[in-house]
Design goal:
Blueprint (H helix, E strand, L loop, with lengths): L1 E9 L4 H13 L5 E5 L3 E3 L10 E10 L4 H14 L14 E9 L9 E3 L2 E3 L8 H10 L4 E2 L3 E2 H8 L4 E3 L10
Antiparallel strand pairs: 1-4, 1-5, 2-4, 3-4, 3-10, 6-7, 8-9
Helix pairs in contact: 1-2, 3-4
Length: about 180
């Protein structure tokens, strides 16, 4: 059994529609439970490639069947369903789903670590991205990024420049 923190981003086409596709892909699957979905934030692009602003959110999901590789496969399936093309590193995308952290649910506080080139956990860039930390903090005020510390403290060090909470854009999570 595992719990995962997933970061969602989109800056091409129907940005909100692609985020909703990801939420539904996790919420409606028989083997996963959507624990929480953050508010949506509009953020400036990161990585130096000229492109439109992103919509970002964070999901917390749980499964008694998926491990870290299962979360990665599900994320990639949803990106593919959204028509994601990987042509420019840090370039524009219909949907980006990053596995930020995975915890063994049956062992509280036990973070999964991976140095595999296809799945590094915790996500190596998460501690430097307010686009991940701010929405995560909204749904888990006591969150800790394994190996880095409290999400609240990390975000305080980065600040929230370039981010705007979009309360007019709901992810429409069903109960």
């Amino acid at each position: 059994m595992s719990t995962a923190v997933l970061s969602l981003g989109s800056n091409l086409g129907d940005r909100l529609g692609y985020l909703r596709l990801a939420v539904a892909g996790f919420a409606d699957a028989e083997d996963t439970e959507l624990v929480a979905a953050s508010p949506v934030y509009e953020t400036e692009p990161w990585g130096g490639v000229p492109q439109d602003d992103f919509l970002n959110a964070v999901l917390i999901v749980r499964s008694d069947k998926l491990d870290e590789w299962g979360w990665l496969r599900r994320a990639q399936e949803l990106e593919e369903r959204a028509g994601r093309e990987r042509s420019v590193h840090w370039g524009p995308r219909t949907l980006d789903v990053d596995v930020v952290a995975v915890f063994a649910t049956d062992q509280p506080g036990s973070a999964v670590h991976s140095e595999h080139p296809d799945l590094r956990l915790p996500h190596p860039g998460a501690a430097e991205r307010n686009t991940v930390l701010r929405p995560w903090l909204d749904v888990a005020p006591d969150a800790v990024l394994p190996g880095h510390g409290a999400v609240a403290e990390l975000l305080a060090g980065l600040g929230e420049a370039g981010m705007r909470r979009r309360d007019d854009l709901a992810l429409e999570v069903r109960a």
